[in-house]
Each structure stands twice: as C-alpha cells, then as structure tokens.
Amino acid sequence: MKLAMIGFGQAGGKIVDKFVEYDQRHGSDIVRSAVAVNTAEADLMGLNHIPSSKQILIGQLSVKGHGVGADPDLGREIAEENIDEIQNALNDVPVHEIDAFLIVAGLGGGTGSGGAPVLANRLKQIHTEPVYGLGVLPGSEEGGIYTLNAARSFQTFVREVDNLLVFDNDAWQKTGESVQGGYEEINEAIATRFGVLFGAGEVGDDSEVAESVVDSSEIINTLSSGGVSTVGYASESVENPSSGGLLSRLTGQSTADDLDTASTTNRVTSLVRKAALGRLTLPAELEGTERALLVVAGPPQYLNRKGIERGRKWVEGQTDSMEVRGGDYPLMDSGKVASVILLSGVYKIDRINELQQIANEAKENIDSIRDESEENLNELVNDDEDELESLF
Ligand code: GDP
C-alpha cells in the first residue's frame, strides 16, 4: 500500500523519518511521499531521511521557530493559518499513485496535537483517498497537561480521520530507560508493525504468487470501520531456504515440501495468537473489535495457508466479528516469520477511559489554580496593612 506520510510535530516527524529509513532498509516501497511539519526549527534539524525541501517550518511570525510549548490551541491556530503552505508541500504528491494519506503525531504536545486534526480536515475536503491518523498517546509519567492535551486531541483527531491508528507510549515505555533511548526503540517498534501491515498491500501484482497475498483494498476495507485501531505483532526467526524462493513457489516444487507441514502450520497459528494476545500498540479487548486483518509475513515456504486460515478462524472467535480478513506477505530474503494483526473499530479500551479521567482531573486542577491565581498574587505582592505605595 502506497502512502503519503505527513509527520506533524516532533514525534510525528521522527516517526515518519523512521518509516522512510525502514522503507529504504526493507525495500518495502510504502512511503511514496514524506513531509514533516513543525513550529520548532530544532526538531526539523534532527531529521535524517526526510529531505529538507519537505520539511515545513510554520508559525515563524508568532513563535519564531521555537515551537508552541505544548499548547495544542496555539498548534491548531498556527496550522489553520498556514494550511495553504502545508498543502503546497503536498502538491507534488502524485495522488493517483497513493492509496491513502497517513498523518502521524504525538497527541500529548502542541504542534502535532493541535495541527494534525486541522490537516486531516483539509485533506479530507480535497481528496477522495482515505486519510488515516497515527496518534501517539503520552506516557503517564509525562504528567497531567500532556494527558489533557492528548485526550482533547484524540477526540478531535478520531472525528477528522477515516481511522485513527493508536500507539500508546505508556504501554511501551520501560522504567529506568532514558527517554531518548526509549523512543529510539519504540519508534523502531512502530515502524516494524505498521511497515509489515502497509507493506503487505504492496505485493499484489503477480497473481500466481499473490493468490492469498493481502491487497491494499483489504487494508482499506478493514480500516473503513472507522474509529480507533490497534495492531499486534509477533515474530520468530527461521532459516531462510536460501535459493529459489519465488521460483520454487511458482513451479510448485516448493522447498516447503522439505519443511514439516505440521510444524509450519503450528508456527503460523501460534504466531497469530501471540500477536493478538501480546502487547498491542494500544491495549484493547479483542472482543470489542469490528473488523480485523491478519497478515503473515516471511519466506513463502513458511507461509502456510492452513495455518493462516486456522489463525483467521481463531481471531473470528476471539473478536466476535465475522469480518476477519487474512493473507500472506511473501518476503523472499527475510530470516523471520512474522504475524501482524490489525484490530479496527476497537471500543473496549480501558486506557482511553483512564486518559479521559486523568485529563478531567488535570483540567479541574488547572482551572482552579487559574481562578485563584490573581487573588494569590495580590495577597503576595500587597502588604497586609496596605500602606506601601507602588512606584507607578
Ligand atoms: P509537538 O512537537 O509539540 O507536537 O510535541 P512532541 O511531538 O515533542 O511531543 C508530543 C508527545 O509525543 C510527547 O508527549 C511524547 O509522549 C511523544 N513523543 C515525543 N517524541 C517521541 C518519539 O520520538 N516517539 C514516540 N513514540 N513518542 C514521542
């Protein structure tokens, strides 16, 4: 599946940068176009793979390249004022060559949190291609204001996109790890999961090979439930049968004959279960899922059709959904078999309830401190007897 990716804000830019790097490393051909938008010049300077002509600095008049200081209202305002400039950066995207737009942003800050929904709104007005969001929730140790920002942005972003894929930093951050080091690993995990998912829709032209290969239309159909999505992943190293991957599959003399069918079936089925029951990008209950898509990637000899079908049936049972699609993604040179599961239209998510509760508490706290602020300052500055005179 070919995407035009827009990274909004620091997290958004870094994650899209990582996607471009992933795409080059794996030759997966997903990123047709990559743009980074930011109000902070320094954040753009940290990007290594998005060309500088595709790095857009907005709001220079108001914030002078220093960012919006985690203020999503300012982020939204600046995005609205500069929407034409952002739009221009996307003008040379060959829209007939892409399947969808993907806007990536951390929802806890200001630039991406406020700006991403504004861009989604604009893109949806102009294009018929689906506009997806990838929203990153903050870690709980980041504090109330980030949670409040994320809860507000989440609400808005879900409404503006065709589907919001969510990644929850809180479920992924390890304690005792430096934030930057942690993000490096987390961003790699994001690129791997979504890279396999979207990459799957890119192998579809060779109909003989592609009999059960996932097509981009299946990804789009799964995501067309709308709402919120989460993704699971599991992988296992295998020995790559070094020669004749594609050829042997075409001629039917598959080296899979040499592999024990029962064990390849079992491997696939168990990887599907591990992906669904392991750590999802956003922890959610399987039961509350509208649609799902299962992708099993790896050397063709290991992509056992029976295993995928069994896994698909199992997912149907777990999700109570009859719309579970499944297929494979042949990766000739890979040394791994991986399973990715996309759960779309998930609605039983404790983490979102918790986020909203903490956000409400943070809002009440901020409001009450603001209300008392003038009074407290007066009390501090003025002397008790009110005898001192200020200079002017
Ligand atoms: P913005 O530049 O104003 O949009 O804000 P940032 O993107 O710097 O931060 C928003 C949120 O994104 C933070 O609160 C973090 O939760 C998260 N974040 C920042 N950098 C990264 C990153 O590299 N990876 C991930 N996964 N999350 C990040």
Brief account:
The chain has 14 helices and 10 strands. The chain has helices at 9-26, 41-45, 60-63, 72-81, 83-89, 111-126, 144-160, 169-172, 179-200, 216-223, 245-251, 261-277, 305-319, 350-381; strands at residues 3-8, 31-38, 55-57, 100-106, 131-137, 163-168, 228-237, 291-298, 324-330, 336-344. α1 (9-26) packs across α6 (111-126).
Structure notes:
- This protein has 392 residues and is of the alpha/beta class.
- It folds into two domains: 198 residues, Tubulin/FtsZ, GTPase domain (Rossmann fold, 3-Layer(aba) Sandwich), CATH 3.40.50; 136 residues, 60s Ribosomal Protein L30, Chain: A, CATH 3.30.1330.
- The chain is 46% helix and 18% strand.
- A ten-stranded mixed beta sheet has the order 3-2-1-4-5-6-7-10-8-9, with helices on both faces.
- Helix 1 crosses helix 9, helix 4 packs parallel to helix 6 and helix 7 packs across helix 14.
- The radius of gyration is 24 Å and the shape is elongated.
- It starts with a strand and ends in an 11-residue tail after the last helix.
- 48% of the residues are buried.
- It binds guanosine-5'-diphosphate (GDP).
- Guanosine-5'-diphosphate binds next to helix 1, helix 6 and helix 9.
- Involved in cell shape control.
- InterPro entries: CetZ, CetZ_C, FtsZ/CetZ, Tubulin/FtsZ-like_C, Tubulin/FtsZ_GTPase_sf, Tubulin_CS, Tubulin_FtsZ_GTPase.
- GO terms for molecular function: GTP binding; GTPase activity.
